[in-house]
Design a protein that fits this description.
The structure is a single chain. Helices cover about 80% and strands about 0% of the residues. It is an all-alpha fold. It has two domains: about 180 residues, Growth Hormone, Chain: A; about 200 residues, Up-down Bundle (Growth Hormone, Chain: A), CATH 1.20.1250. Its main location: membrane. InterPro entries: MFS_trans_sf (IPR036259), TM_effector (IPR010290).
Length: about 400
């Protein structure tokens, strides 16, 4: 039996189940919010983009301090608390909707509060994985985690769209709440983490060290820059898509959920194909396929302005999922492989702040462009962004890597 065929430890399997439930809850919540805004309240592309910006703002504000906390506290407990916070906000959203007391502002504020839990989970999880498996199984563990995330991305938007159309938003929000509670329960089953040497360094100094490590690393720096530009372009699209699909493409709630779910289908396909691709491609080739796939997808999406058909949008979302998931698996392993263990929390938070922090900037940019020049202009802006992220990665030394490097 090869190392890659060795079964993952039980705690990793619990983490994988928790990840699926947590991502499922997040995707249900993220999909139902713009559906409520557009189909129940008649919001346009600019308003849904501002809603998206508010719901992603915690990534920009909290990733760095939560990364420091993940280095000092129990990561599994931090993630458990994060899911309980998200479950509480989802339950409150469902109750407010059933009482006809929910507003666009309330939807945005509670979504932002729930996203605080998402930030904590996202920062702590990459730092927890190397504590559960050895270096030889890092890529295998990351692949399983990304596969579960992909499944959640595939089914979450579809369930949200069908639930909105057939039973109302409260059903989807209630299901998301239950999934967050299950994710927290799985984390509670993990064995206690090994005690870490207490750090007496000041938090600001730790943050500076993390930023300096990323910016000074020949592989992490271009990976982070590529991801920043990708996320700006992606959230320009995410902010306007539901309004664009409802107006320009004339799609129903279920059809919108289906197209968003195809993104997850692409991720599942990419995650399943990743081991076969890894046997045939260099490590740098795995990393490069994400930006290239996203650029092709953006061109297809922009083509729907001239030819408003589902047959352009559907393959675009599949490509948006398939290539970037291979990128995510590879670059997560790269980050874990080249970063000293005592810096993983800080480095993860720096990269998360830069990449996920770009999300509200992208959504806000999409809102401004859609308001001033229309949704079509925002779609063409996406193409420019995805072309730029491909160019950054293509010129970097990461593309030339043959194998996964290790920390010296």
């Amino acid at each position: 039996m090869t190392r890659s065929d060795t079964p993952l430890p039980p705690d990793v399997r619990r983490l994988v189940r928790s990840c699926f439930a947590a991502q499922g809850a997040e995707q249900l919540a993220l999909a139902i919010a713009p559906l409520i805004a557009v189909l129940a309240w008649g919001a346009d592309g600019s308003r849904t983009a501002w809603l998206q910006a508010g719901q992603t703002l915690p990534f920009l504000l909290l990733a760095l301090p939560l990364g420091v906390l993940a280095n000092r506290a129990s990561r599994s407990r931090l993630m458990c608390a994060a899911e309980l916070l998200r479950a509480s906000t989802l339950l409150l959203l469902a109750l407010l909707w059933t009482q006809d007391s929910l507003s666009l502002v309330g939807l945005g504020l509670l979504g932002a509060l729930g996203a605080c839990g998402t930030v904590a989970y996202s920062v702590a999880a990459p730092a927890l994985v190397p504590a559960l498996v050895g270096h030889a199984q890092l890529t295998q563990a990351n692949r399983q985690l990304e596969l579960m995330r992909s499944l959640a991305l595939a089914f979450g938007p579809l369930v949200a769209g069908v639930a909105f159309q057939r039973a109302g938003p409260a059903v989807a929000l209630g299901l998301a709440c239950l999934m967050s509670l299950f994710a927290a329960w799985q984390l509670r089953q993990l064995a206690p983490e090994a005690p870490r040497r207490p750090s007496h360094a000041r938090p600001l100094r730790q943050l500076r060290e993390g930023i300096g490590f990323v910016l000074g690393h020949p592989y992490l720096r271009p990976v982070m820059l590529t991801a920043v530009v990708f996320n700006i372009a992606w959230f320009v699209l995410q902010g306007i898509y539901v309004a664009y699909a409802a107006s320009r493409l004339a799609l129903s709630a279920a059809q919108i959920g289906l197209t968003l779910g195809l993104y997850g289908v692409g991720m599942v396909a990419g995650a399943w194909a990743a081991p076969a691709l890894a046997r045939r491609w260099t490590f740098g080739g795995l990393v490069a396929c994400g930006p290239a796939s996203a650029l092709v997808a953006a061109l297809l999406m922009a083509g729907s302005v001239a030819w408003p058909t589902l047959w352009l949008v559907a393959p675009a979302f599949v490509l948006f999922g398939a290539g970037p998931i291979v990128w995510t698996i590879a670059t997560t392993s790269l980050r874990q492989g080249v970063t000293p263990p005592d810096m993983l929390g800080r480095v993860s938070s720096v990269i998360l702040t830069a990449t996920y922090g770009a999300r509200p900037l992208g959504a806000a940019l999409g809102a401004l462009v859609a308001a001033q020049a229309g949704v079509a202009a925002a779609l063409f802006l996406c193409v420019v962004g995805f072309a730029l992220q491909w160019a950054i990665l293509w010129r970097s030394p990461v593309r030339k890597l043959d194998t996964l490097p290790r920390a010296p």
